[in-house]
Specification:
The chain is of the alpha/beta class and about 400 residues long. The protein folds into two domains: about 220 residues, 3-Layer(bba) Sandwich (FAD/NAD(P)-binding domain), CATH 3.50.50.60; about 140 residues, D-Amino Acid Oxidase, subunit A, domain 2 (D-Amino Acid Oxidase, Chain A, domain 2, 2-Layer Sandwich). It has twelve helices and 22 strands. An eight-stranded mixed β-sheet has the order 8-7-16-17-18-15-19-22. β16 and β17 form a beta hairpin. The longest helix has 24 residues. About 45% of the residues are buried. The chain binds flavin-adenine dinucleotide (FAD).
Length: about 400
Amino acid sequence: MTVASSPSTPIQRTRVVIVGAGPAGLTVANILRAASVDCVLLETESREFIEQRPRAGFIEEWAVRALERRGLADRLLQYAQAHGECEFRFAGERHRFRYGELSGQHHFVYPQQLLVTDLVRAYADDAGGDVCFGVRDVELHAIDTDRPSVSYTDPETGERRRVDCDVIAGCDGARGVTRACLPPEHATVARYDYGVGWLALLAEAPPSSDCVVFGIHPRGFAAHMARSPQVTRYYLECPPDDDPENWPHERVWSELRARLSADGARPLAEGRLIEKRVLDMHSYVVEPMAYGRLYLAGDAAHLAAPIAAKGMNLALHDALLLGEALVAYCGKGDGSGLSGYSAACLPRVWQCQEFSHWLSEVLHGASSGDLFRAGSGAARLRRILGSRAAAAAFAELYIGKDIDL
Ligand SMILES: Cc1cc2nc3c(=O)[nH]c(=O)nc-3n(C[C@H](O)[C@H](O)[C@H](O)COP(=O)(O)OP(=O)(O)OC[C@H]3O[C@@H](n4cnc5c(N)ncnc54)[C@H](O)[C@@H]3O)c2cc1C
């Protein structure tokens, strides 16, 4: 219901305002809607834009099953491919790693924009959820009181609007506004810079392998990851501040061929590059992930450089916990899930950060120019390829099974 407090500031009242319609915000929104908890979802971009924004592609099986239990994985299960193997290419040799056999679980290859499309449809079209796309100048107010609110500029009218609520879910990603609302004296930010960049590429070309390929090479790391039968993601290690314009088509493909070459490997199927951008490889963790009536989820609370494909999976983990905690609070007045929310999320967050850091040395050691890092990175790789116990431990971390230690 919208009521006007003054001619210029319409005020809406709801239980939960969710800021950001990425995987985290949309999952929270769907859980609330399914439990008939009143909520409003605010997103700066248009619906068309978020439904086409390519990013992640590897969803861990536990997350797929959690979405399935909530009726949110029908299309995913219909179209996604299950992967349980990856390949390390090193010194011209190929080493298959069968983590599916070791862990009993798989990745589902499903582009993030398709998951977002499914979640928007489930929330907005099927369940009639309240969502406003294209909002501007989002501001949070009174988060340390029991009457917080969120204001924004309406994209249609240019008017300021305000939504009063009980709780705010800050799901607005790494570049959002909610994280900055945590007072510095109540939250710490741990940040780590990997000191490398990754040129992230999407090629209009079919995958050239049936699994993820990690190319470990003195010229720099490279990776191959399927996205769909027509599109493949590639990464090339580059200087952190490199300009994508330094990477014309010919240079990209000759560098990928060099870094991913190995005996018996299929030649790369080349194609037009439809995305080319440099990722500054860094990570951060905000602790605690909440202050007052504001709860952060996903990249708003922690960024995991995409070394081990953990970011979206962590966002889903947070969102599932936060969604259920909000349902308990709004439905039964049970605040225990909310008060324990940050402590419930952070162990998995740190396990994933540590695993990404560990894997980074395997992937970047050879090209670091540091003989000690190169030697110890190679030792880590030999250990997971040579010891069943080490391989099993790696497999569980890679697939995200039971890692909330
Ligand atoms: C190239 C690349 C590849 C990746 N590959 C993988 C992978 O294979 N597996 C994996 O698990 N992760 C991967 N990730 C990470 C993954 O994409 C993110 O971790 C994931 O998108 C986080 O979801 P989120 O909902 O927290 O944030 P986001 O997806 O960033 O969503 C936040 C939303 O909030 C909106 N927003 C921002 N500011 C505001 C505001 N002020 N008000 C309202 N809305 C706002 C944004 O427009 C956005 O829609 C990859 C990332 C990149 C860049």
